[in-house]
Amino acid sequence: MLDTLRRLIEEVNLARNLEQALGIIVRRVKQAMQVDVCSVYLTDQDTEYYVLKATDGLNQSSVGKVRLGQERGLVGLVAKRAEPVNLDNAPEHHRFCYFPESGEEPYHAFLGVPIIHHRKVVGVLVVQQHGSEKFDEDSVTFLITIAAQLAGAIAHAEASGEVDIVGQISTPSHDSRPISGQPGAPGVAIGTAKVVYTLADINAVPDRRTSNPDAEIMAFNAALSAVKKDIKSLSKQFVDRLPPEDHALFDVYMLMLDSDSLAGQTRERIEAGNWAQGALRQTIHDHERIFREMEDSYMRERVDDVRDLGQRILSHLQQDSQRPLEYPEQTVLVGEEISAAMLAEVPPEKLAGVISVRGSRTSHVAILARALGVPAVMGATDLPVSRMDGAEVIADGYSGRVYVTPAQPILEEYRRLIDQEVELTEELKALRELPSETLDGEHIPLYANTGLISDLTPTRESGAEGIGLYRTEFPFMIRQRFPGEDEQRANYRQVLEAFAPRPVVLRTLDVGGDKALPYFPIEEENPFLGWRGIRITLDHPEIFLVQIRAMLLASAGLDNLNILLPMISDVSELIDSLSLIHQAYEELLEEGQDIRMPKIGVMIEVPSAVYQAGNLAKRVDFLSIGTNDLTQYLLAVDRNNSRVAELYDSLHPAVIRAILQVVDSARVHDKPVSVCGEMAGDPAAAILLLGMGIHSLSMSVSSLLRVKWVIRNLSRERALAILSEVLVMEDVREIRRYLNTQLEEAGMGGLIRAGK
Ligand code: PEP
Ligand code: MG
Questions:
Q1: For 1-160, which CATH class?
Q2: Per-residue pLDDT reduced to its tens digit, 307-352
Q3: Ligand nearest to the CA of 505
Q4: With respect to CATH, is domain 437-751 assigned 3.90.1110.10?
Q5: Catalytically active residues, by annotation
């Protein structure tokens, strides 16, 4: 069964469009279960009817015509109950609904299971038999397993639309329906999609229109010849080392490469307007599908060879086209998974927005987008990435909605909202020089989060009172090896000098989790619970000490350095870190350096640190709450996993209580507490943090004036009153709704949605 299931899923994933995917499903399920009929009904989003979309067994002419509401027919019953219905004699059931055009009358046994995606019934999968016997348990569980596995693929195919003509590239048609993702960075962008992808992955290659098919065909021919040459030379090398039957594989490869179907079809697709890489992907997918459907198991296994050949041709094509990417004026970067490096490659004046299929609000690429003030949507799982290159798109970073080739009225509405956003941003600029003070005169310093040298100027001009979190890992990530002491010192000096005498908090290296160093790979099953942050640097004191020395040296004469320790989950880790810091300090004094001991802080971002906040606070000068990780660990929700992104919200009552506990514990030791996670830049959350008595907030520069607006419009007393209301609420949605209403009523609705 597992094998059947795996093959079915693979075939469906390769289908060119929804119709083809459904065709594969009904055919394969009918075969595997040896039933007389298999059909799929899908939910029509507008009418909420269940429409017959594909069948193997009923009359084909009824496809698209049989439609049932929740209150009618057995299909409606399955959908309404959201559970299987297994009957020995369907026509006798009071819900049975007869459609003469379907040719359904000879079938008695009926088994329908719902297809459910994200808790919503998106369709019903039905099998039917002549005989009058219920389906056995194995059949029921098989169908349930298939429906559960297919739900994502069907929902994705449905949401991402269809390709019109085989081999031609089609951009999605004008649409008023958005694709949903998660808010990544606030703001709205209208621009041209630029699809970026990991090289040497044939499945990741997008379609792209070419203006020069001849050049693309030449490139393809050259890549093909290069692969043939490679295979010939491999074949020679192995001629004496492999038995003849295995060596014959090379002949199969050569046959495939010479066959007109592979090369000819790719060239046809290029002539139809696709670029060589996109045309190759389509041809390889077609071939994979054909091989997979073959009865002969030897031929079926050739699928892997086809893919391997495709991959080889692709890598030659990509080597030949390693020219720098051209970015449209208003680039909206689109990809399955966008890395920090991909983002950094876009000229800043051209980057208008970011849309990623994976990730969520606190993924590091979203944090980077926010730092650059660029709207971002994350976790847009249904995005038709391969067909979006060059399409006009809207990215709404407040609601997480994406519109691909939007209809005119939607474009006009968003243009109006963007104009209002620009006005709001202009109005907010007036706050830059004004103090971050509540109505009752309390000063709450606002600091900036950063980690990119290039954005120091905007950070300095943003009105930030210092740097509350400098993520030192970015300079480590963009190099080919660990940066040395001098290199690091120069880097930190630049930051400290730019802000002196204002305080700067440099965090020690926090890699692991979703932040990898290309030259220090860490392979782990569960990286967020693994070797991360301080755990790595304590295991490698040579890395830690170099960094601390560089920080201390950089601070000479400025004395605005604060050092922050990430991922502390145990008091002993703090004790060991402090001992290394003192060691570095003593060494430098011995070397005759004129430096002072900086203030040291601990990040509270792990539940164990919440419960030991007092023990930690008494040993350091300040605490800084990393709500991105704290939320992830408290709620057991991976901060990068779009499948559970809806569960990730720092306004969850458990997170609010944890922060309150940290503030109370630190107060006992008279130590200040700051929040430096993304929560600090969320205007709704800022109200609560103010009420809790947080001493300072550190956030992306783009959020700074927005939060200042909130602070200047509230008194501590009012914030406290709002906090007490929230503390009795049990549900995060209720809390967010309530806080948003408070902002709207105070005339600050523009902070939480598009427009003013
Ligand atoms: C946090 O976890 O809240 C934090 C500020 O650190 P990072 O996002 O870099 O993990
Ligand atoms: Mg963190």
A1: alpha beta
A2: 888 888 998 888 866 566 789 999 999 998 887 667 878 888 999 9
A3: 1
A4: no
A5: 364, 676
